[in-house]
Amino acid sequence: MFDHYIIKGIGGFYYVKSGDAVIECRARGVFRKKRITPVAGDAVRIETEGGAPVIAEILPRKNVFVRPPVANVDQMFLVASTVQPAPSTLVLDKLSAIAVDKGAQPVLVITKTDLADAGALAACYAHSGIPVIRVNAATGVGVDEIRTRLAGKLSVFCGNSGVGKSTLLRALLPGQTLETGEISQKLGRGRHTTREVTLYETDGGLVADTPGFASLDLERAAYIPKENLQFAFPEIARYFGRCRFTGCSHTAETGCAVRAALAAGEIDAARYESYAALYAEAKEVKEWEL
To answer: In whole angstroms, how far apart are CA 137 and each of 105, 120, 145, 211?
Structure first.
């Protein structure tokens, strides 16, 4: 992990972890002039200015997410429940595509497995290469499997309110004060109670809660060009170069290796439908709009 990194930013102040200490800093004005905002996860260099510590430099980022603001993410745990709210494979596939495109490993975590069978949702990812972990936070089933993946990495947990994300984080971060919103029966989702990204140390790694991530769309903050989208779906990427036509979109062309694999059951239909929907969205985006 980094020597100095931001664990939280709020109200223009940044809290930088340095060894066992946490240093409260402001950022130099040059960042504002360059329209660069330090975020949780940033590795930084600190200097003293006017007798107070300031963030003088943001070291090169592996990646950065705009909403919510977090940098240098190694893996993204996509938390979905079997019921209430019912899982949306399109939302999960958007998020997993964003993760892959930005160089982070997606991991699907299915909660509330005591209320309904997780088999159908897990089966959608059988050919994807995306790990699937079934969890019951109340009994602890699956929690240790998540812990084994945390060491040496910065991990984010995202998912709709009400899926049990906060309950899971409390199990992973005992002693931390994490609130859980009530589930709205009318809307089928919970109220956001987390206000900003905070990084926590646990099991040799860093864990962040990421409010609002499930509502992220493939637009400016996480736009994937239609030509690159195939690489954000691992089970589709492995057929790159096998189609009859160069530049195949895998949506309508003859001689498409991806659609042949779909017909053969080597690509799940729901995953392919997500790819096709995201491709149609990306095709409508004009470069000048970005």
So the answer is: 22, 20, 12, 20
